[in-house]
Design brief:
alpha/beta; 319 residues; 7-stranded parallel β-sheet
């Protein structure tokens, strides 16, 4: 990157730039006139100055930090990837350490770390402690992916505590990429009896990971906008965590019914005012991101489906 001093312009290193989310983030940062240096083990011929390297290569990571003001760290092994458990640790934990260590040594001002709601360890038989879920909810992951993300967060907080690096940690819900929507439609039809008018049946094999038990999601463009907000917004805390979720469920089934199916006591959730007024509100609250980052998801799940011809209109539940 060249150094720019104009308003709203900074030199950013984007790891995982060639991944699903990375492409959206790169475009969103470009729209805001940021100068971005891309870093990924995959080739990116359309990007001038792209660094083709692995985050496990400490030498390459260190050299990539020259002149960088902010790092957006997306490079990770995703939950949808079929890999040995130890590989999640090798990439998601050691890779994050390498990035944070190099950023601190290079005098980088801020690292935006992409984590996941998987750190909470929620599942069909593992309900949240309370609703709506916020950033104070306890983390109790039970699978390697979620655990690797939790340890990456702890590592990032450790670096921030040392006082030389600020870390903004984002926890997106299921990011509803176009190529996953067919599988989601199929899974929702089978599990919740959801049908979209004029929609296609979908391909259950394309989701690549289990249907999120909370039925929460965020659109990729919305998620990318949140990354940009995390880059640009003034934040006083050395370490801060934000949930990145749409305020709506992806399913028309009442959220309270889903929570009860996960194992929450019915008397605990029936009286929550949010779900009385908005039966399909998300299990997650992104209020902190809205109040501190000025970010709010815009895209309804139905609009994501309509864009890829998987549905047109409001969904219905079968009897």
């Amino acid at each position: 990157c060249e150094r720019f001093t104009g308003p709203g312009v900074s030199c950013i290193l984007l790891t995982g730039a060639c991944g699903r989310l990375g492409r959206y983030v790169l475009e969103a940062l470009g729209h805001r006139r940021h100068q971005v240096r891309t870093f990924d083990k995959a080739p990116a011929p359309e990007c001038a100055g792209h660094i083709r390297a692995d985050v496990l290569d400490r030498v390459s990571v260190r050299s990539a930090m020259t002149g960088v003001e902010t790092v957006v760290h997306l490079a990770a092994l995703d939950a949808s990837v079929s890999a040995p458990e130890q590989q999640f640790f090798a990439v998601n934990v050691q890779g994050t350490w390498n990035v944070l260590e190099a950023a601190e040594q290079a005098g980088v001002q801020r690292v935006v770390l992409c984590s996941s709601v998987a750190v909470l360890g929620l599942a069909d038989d593992r309900p949240p402690d309370s609703l709506p879920i916020d950033e104070t909810h306890v983390c109790r992951p039970y699978q390697a992916y979620g655990l690797s993300k939790q340890i990456a967060e702890i590592t990032a907080e450790c670096f921030a505590r040392r006082g030389r690096l600020q870390v903004v940690c984002l926890r997106p819900a299921f990011v509803a990429f176009d190529d996953l929507l067919g599988g989601v439609v199929q899974a929702l039809a089978e599990s919740d009896g959801v049908q979209w008018p004029n929609g296609k049946s979908g391909d259950g094999a394309s989701i690549g990971e289990p249907l999120t038990p909370t039925r929460s999601y965020v659109g990729p463009e919305d998620c990318a906008r949140c990354v940009v907000s995390a880059v640009e917004t003034r934040i006083s805390a050395a370490y801060r965590v934000y949930l990145v979720t749409a305020p709506w469920s992806m399913s028309p089934a009442p959220t309270v019914e889903r929570a009860v199916a996960m194992g929450m006591p019915e008397e605990t959730v029936r009286g929550i005012a949010l779900y009385v007024d908005q039966p399909t509100a998300s299990m997650f609250s992104a209020q902190r991101a809205e109040s501190e980052l000025g970010w709010r998801a815009r895209t309804h799940f139905e609009d994501l489906l309509k864009a890829v011809n998987l549905g047109n209109g409001s969904p219905t539940l079968s009897d």
